[in-house]
Specification:
With 497 residues, the chain is α/β, with parallel strands linked by helices. The protein contains 16 helices and 23 strands. The strands form six sheets. It has a seven-stranded mixed beta sheet, with helices on both faces. Strands 10-9-8-11-12-22 form a six-stranded mixed beta sheet, sandwiched between helices. The structure holds nicotinamide-adenine-dinucleotide (NAD). This is methylmalonate-semialdehyde dehydrogenase (CoA acylating).
Length: 497
């Protein structure tokens, strides 16, 4: 069995901690790989490599950094298929979806290629006599990234390309459930000429995370994962004097107004609820059917749900793959039974689903729960699986109030033909990302991604301009070149212009 170690100082490093974790192929249930779980000392050596690389990298010219970024972009482009296959083999999502993940991650790398434009400072001349003021942004130092299992390539790429483009060095702690794709990203960065120590990968679990959070040489932490851990990361990082952005979980609602095209809405609900087996932080997990749309909409979604082809992600005919682990699959299934017990209509029941020839895989069929109410567990918890809840609402206001009562505020969407209603929704809904007839409004790379409420702890969203602000700190320089003929004179007053 293969054991995946760390990538430190530009080379692969075997773990000496003696601790490993299992990495499964969710389609077969086999466990072909172990992943090293770093000790605190191993984390220290990764941070040390990043700290040593920081001096030269932070001083490197923008031309040198962008030369690397363009080359890396071309190399990743040539390796899209290979990275997608690695994602599928450990996460389970279908190959086309994994390719989409790589493409969306590369958007941020493409943004990073334009970093000279983004790091241009501001200059005001003659703010006072012969006094100029310049604002510049500089890197923060060693940055740590801690990432979730559900986008093993894209979420790390939300972070490190921009961080290193800004002149920082980086230590990535990927999810221990599917570590091979992020590891490969680091190998390819080295192949594209990234100096050793600028990007390091340390595999591990809570031990590694806790050491990153307390390490005095880590200046900033980007985290993406579940809400309880995001909250913990933020408070620990702040307690250790670090800047932090910690993106958490979600429960995304799709509001369907009576005037919507219900076939279009049903197609989109299916794609957004069951794509990647519902293991997306921007998945739609609740449809709010307004007015008299409910029965027809549920019938249309159910009809489509029953026809979905579920199978191994490397089979091109599969539309949905397995879940990440057996335990998670069973937990997701328990919400379907629980909702039935609490009074929901189980219109489509995906529990007990098996795929011929893959009986040990972590498969689950898709489930559709109707007449769900906000007090049911299936509504209250983030299920993170292929379970779609439908809640009925009499009016737009009732639907909006339901969404705004949620503890999460990641993404949301409205489906309507009424521009006025859509405009009202954009302004009134409490969520960080809003779609109008777009079910998964993940912003493109040059905008920023982030939710409100329990979906994000910290101030700045991730990637886009917020990402650049997070990975840099501002400095303002006030300059005077006095005329040699003038004397300065003594003046103890507070300087004004
Ligand atoms: P998770 O919170 O379990 O793990 C995320 C990371 O934190 C991993 O690297 C893991 O090793 C580490 N970790 C786990 N437990 C820890 C602990 N007790 N102490 C310190 N570190 C710990 O999340 P996951 O299951 O890998 O991913 C799914 C979750 O991530 C969902 O809740 C999903 O909504 C969320 N997510 C959010 C976004 C977003 O942008 N808001 C994007 C993707 C995923």
């Amino acid at each position: 069995m293969k054991t995946l170690g760390h990538w430190i100082g530009g080379k692969s490093v075997e773990s000496v901690s003696g601790n490993v974790g299992p990495v499964y192929n969710p389609a077969t249930g086999a466990q072909p790989t172990h992943v090293a779980l770093a000790s605190a000392e191993e984390v220290d050596s990764a941070v040390d490599a990043a700290r040593r690389a920081y001096g030269e990298w932070s001083q490197s010219s923008l031309a040198k950094r962008t030369a690397f970024l363009f080359k890396y972009r071309e190399l990743l482009d040539a390796h899209r298929d290979e990275i997608a296959a690695l994602i599928t083999s450990e996460h389970g999502k279908v190959h086309s979806d994994a390719l989409g993940e790589v493409a969306r991650g590369m958007e941020i790398l493409e943004l990073a290629c334009g970093i000279p434009e983004k790091l241009k400072g501001e200059l005001s001349t003659q703010v006072s006599t012969r006094v100029d003021v310049a604002s510049i942004r500089q890197p923060v130092g060693v940055v740590a990234g801690i990432t979730p299992f559900n986008f093993p390539a894209m979420v790390p790429m939300w972070m490190f390309p921009l961080a290193i483009a800004c002149g920082n060095t980086f230590v990535l702690k990927p999810s221990e459930k599917d570590p091979s794709a992020p590891y490969r990203l680091a190998e390819l960065a080295a192949e594209a000429g990234l100096p050793e120590g600028v990007l390091n990968v340390v595999n591990g679990d809570k031990v590694a995370v806790d050491r990153l959070l307390s390490h005095p040489d880590v200046a900033a932490v980007s985290f993406v994962g579940s809400t309880p851990i995001a909250k913990y990361i933020q408070s620990e990082a702040v307690a250790h004097g670090k800047r932090v952005q910690a993106l958490g979980g979600a429960k995304n609602h799709m509001l369907v107004l009576p005037d919507a095209d219900l076939d279009f809405a049903a197609d989109n609900a299916i794609n957004a609820a069951y794509g990647s087996a519902g293991e997306r932080c921007m998945a739609v997990s609740v449809v709010v059917a307004v007015g008299d749309t409910g029965d027809e909409l549920v019938a249309k979604i159910a009809d489509r749900a029953k026809k979905l082809r579920i199978g191994p992600g490397d089979d091109p005919s599969s539309e949905m793959g397995p879940l990440i682990t057996r335990e998670h699959r069973d937990k997701v299934a328990s919400y379907v039974d629980g909702a039935r017990g609490q009074g929901a209509d189980v219109v489509v029941d995906g529990t007990g689903y098996t795929v011929d020839g893959h009986e040990d895989g972590f498969f689950l069929g898709v489930s559709l729960l109707d007449k769900v109410s906000p007090d049911m567990d299936a509504y209250r918890d983030e299920i993170f699986g292929p379970v779609l809840c439908v809640v009925r609402a009499d009016t737009y206001e009732e639907g909006l109030s339901l969404i705004n009562s949620s503890r999460w505020g990641n993404g949301t969407a409205i489906f309507t033909r009424d521009g006025g209603a859509a405009r009202r929704f954009q302004l009134e809904v409490e969520a960080g990302m809003v779609g109008v007839n777009v079910p998964i409004p993940v912003p493109v790379g040059h905008h920023s991604f982030g939710g409100w409420k329990d979906s994000l702890f910290g101030d700045l969203h991730i990637y886009g301009n917020d990402g650049i602000a997070f990975y840099t700190r501002g400095k303002v320089i006030t300059t005077r070149w006095p005329d040699p003929a003038e004397s300065g004179g003594i003046n103890l007053g507070f300087p004004t212009s």
